[in-house]
Prior knowledge:
Elements: E1 13-20, H1 38-45, E2 47-54, H2 60-69, H3 73-76, H4 92-98, E3 103-108, E4 123-127, H5 151-155, E5 157-159, H6 163-181, E6 191-199, E7 203-205, H7 215-218, H8 233-241, H9 251-281, E8 288-294, H10 313-316, E9 317-323, E10 331-333, E11 337-338, H11 342-350, H12 356-359, H13 366-370, E12 379-383, E13 392-397, E14 400-404, E15 411-414, H14 432-443, H15 448-465, H16 469-475
Parallel strand pairs: 1-6, 1-8, 2-10, 2-11, 3-4, 3-6, 5-7
Antiparallel strand pairs: 2-9, 8-9, 12-13, 13-14, 14-15
Helix pairs in contact: 6-9
Amino acid sequence: MRGEAPLSVVPTNLLFICSDEHTRDLLGCYGHPVVRTPNLDRLAAGGTRFTSAYTNSPICVPARASLQTGRYVHQLGTWSSGEAYTGKPEGWGHRLLDAGHRCVAVGKLHFQSAENPNGFDPEIVPLHVHAGRGWVSALLRGNCPPSPAVADYARDVGYGETTYTDYDRRICDRACEWLREHATRGGKPWTLFVSFVCPHFPLIAPERYRGQYSLETAGMPVAYADCARPRHPVPESVARCLNYDDFFETEAQVRAARAAYFALCTFLDDHVGRLLDCLDETRLAGRTRIIYSTDHGDMLGSHGYWAKSVMYEDSAAIPLILAGPGVPRGATVDTPVSLVDCYPTVLESAGVPLTDEDRELPGHSLLDIAAGETPERTVLSEYHDGGAVTGMFMIRHANWKYIHYPGYAPQLFDLGADPHELDDLGTSCAHAAIRERCEAALRSVLDPERVNAQALAEQAAKVAALGGAEAILAAGDFGDSSGYTPAPVD
């Protein structure tokens, strides 16, 4: 870690800005040479940027449950997009409300329902899983058939307006309204969770961003050529269900999709800028810490995959920035962290003491890590969702990235020498000792075979309770043909 020495941590307000499906490396402050994110860049310049941050599951619903509760997916049983968080066990929002703090959410939560006690009061224009069910086809796992809506990912590319771009504007408007009308009142520090949906597909950016990214500057994805892709049967099983790449027929289509995603990143960044300006306008900036992160990334064609649901860096790694009082300025931290670390961070920022039960959770305060602490623990991400014939369990161990697939060969990548994950060492004889150490580190956190069996059994029971696979497929998932959760009507 490098940067200025930190100040002592004192309770402050917290503005937690969350996006959806924002690939870590597609920000200027993370080194991307093309994508323009000036507001996130200035946030990073005034705070601490975490270079090895990960989602706890590369899919929305389980990731957001981990973020709220500070627990891993296997500790929650929110295995998939059809098993959403119900408000139990309680998360950091509940702890803040119980301690007399204001804790407000604006935008996407992706829990089961606003009728549940989710830890926010109020929830403003919330987005939850459709009909309280979500993507229940995910429960079919390896037998999940491709959705007709998958083709829309490649078809709906370009410039114009969508329900999601309109929704993000409403989220930003309502968040700024809350800051102006409520945040300046006295009392204990408040926490405002502002959660946007962009740059999540559809990859259609507003017209004002047309021309900012050309097909040439958008470039082609890493390892997109068929001969360059690492092969493994488990992520390939996901690609059979989420077969987005089948509908990209030309290089121009691929580049256009990437250009539109880049434009959505800048659209998102403009909203971040509005929030930061609002803090300045209301004279709250000096009394407010800020977290920026996302639920997971988007492969955007790398290795032939699109969207999320695999453990390559584009999907599993996330941007994470912390700024404000007590946070080192202009600092970078290479220590691996994940979304579960937000739980103790939010409580520490508000001045709410951790309980003995809190200390048993896997998270570690990002404020402490930014100050130089290096916790002895293993960062975990897991996937038990649509398309996967078996569970995926990923850990970071120094520069090594190890992915365990029960019943299948593992994957191993040396991220120091191979940051684009082009050389899979999962069956390399020369790296057997490294794999053994990584597997031992994983097993110090959980028993992957036992957890995998538990997830599959619980999901099979839920399929049966819903009337079986045919009934699930006949009912549909999102209430329309879009292939993603509809935005709420205000």
